[in-house]
Write a structure and sequence with these properties.
Strand order of the largest sheet: 1-5-3-6
Oligomer: single chain
Distance between the termini: 23 Å
Shape: globular
Strand content: 5-15%
Number of strands: 7
Length: 282
């Protein structure tokens, strides 16, 4: 890393010294990096991410303007053949992106992903950085955006040249631990965001519970099948359009199965987080 810095004038390494109050906290390291940065626009990704093209920074930065001080991008996961877990991870990623892009598009931005996002430096300092949630290990991306984003200051970037690609978890246990940590930050979102996201998930869950239950007891099965079919057609259209933009078209045909897997997984994670809070970063 020091050789890399010596060979490139525009690279600066920041040595994060041991601090008893913040040791092991990603937000502390990010804050130090932001403080020594020389320019006004900050672009973020994670250590395991690779830009999808050499135009990544160009694409992201082109969305800044006098009004737009936040740019939300898409962080994809690498595809692995013959892996149901990989498809589930990528399906959840597309559904999350569909939500936070859609909400931002109608003027209700509520989160971004640290794998691919950008904002102005003065926005960070005017908000006192991560001060309000520094003690929480997660949230350098979604909690910060939840605090500072509004109808007028947020822009979206989802061109394929602007994507970043990460290596996904390879075991179900590792992915569950990661999702437990991610989901735990949602408790600190603004109330209206929590209500909207909660209603979305609850209606998903109740639809399948009631639909399957009514089919089992034999209640007007033609009507129930028709309603399930109508919902799937609408969902296939919405999800398919999004998956095509994010180059995840192999997930479209598996959408109903992956949705059922995801709903049950999220329910188990919610219950697990009620019993005990996730304590580990990895």
């Amino acid at each position: 890393m020091k050789t890399f810095e010596a060979e490139n004038d525009n690279i600066k390494l920041v040595d994060v010294k041991v601090n008893e109050a913040f040791w092991g906290n990603k937000k502390y390291a990010l804050t130090l990096g932001i403080k020594v940065s020389k320019h006004d626009f900050l672009v973020f990704t994670d250590a395991d991410c690779t830009p999808n093209s050499k135009k990544w920074l160009e694409q992201i930065s082109s969305n800044f303007s006098n009004e737009k001080s936040i740019v939300l991008g898409y962080g994809a996961y690498a595809k692995k053949k013959f892996s149901l877990l990989n498809k589930l991870i990528r399906f959840e990623t597309v559904m999350t992106a569909l939500q936070y892009f859609s909400y931002a598009n109608v003027g209700l931005p509520y989160m971004g992903v640290g794998r691919n996002m950008a904002y102005r430096k003065d926005l960070f300092f005017n908000n006192c950085g991560f001060n309000s949630h520094m003690s929480i290990k997660s949230g350098d991306d979604d909690l910060f955006i939840n605090e500072v984003a509004n109808t007028s200051n947020t822009s979206l970037c989802f061109t394929k040249e602007s994507f970043t690609v990460s290596e996904p978890k390879t075991t179900f246990k590792a992915w569950i631990l990661q999702k437990r940590r991610h989901i735990s930050t949602a408790n600190f979102y603004k109330l209206n965001h929590k209500v909207l996201l909660g209603v979305f998930y609850i209606t998903q869950l109740l639809f399948w519970i009631f639909g399957i239950s009514l089919l089992i007891i034999g209640f007007s099965w033609p009507l129930i099948v028709s309603l399930i079919g109508l919902r799937l057609i609408i969902q296939w259209f919405c999800f398919g359009f999004t998956a095509k933009k994010f180059e995840e078209t192999d997930l479209i045909i598996l959408m109903p199965i992956l949705e059922l897997f995801l709903i049950t997984t999220q329910l188990s994670i919610f219950i697990a987080n009620l019993i005990s809070k996730p304590k580990h970063w990895k």
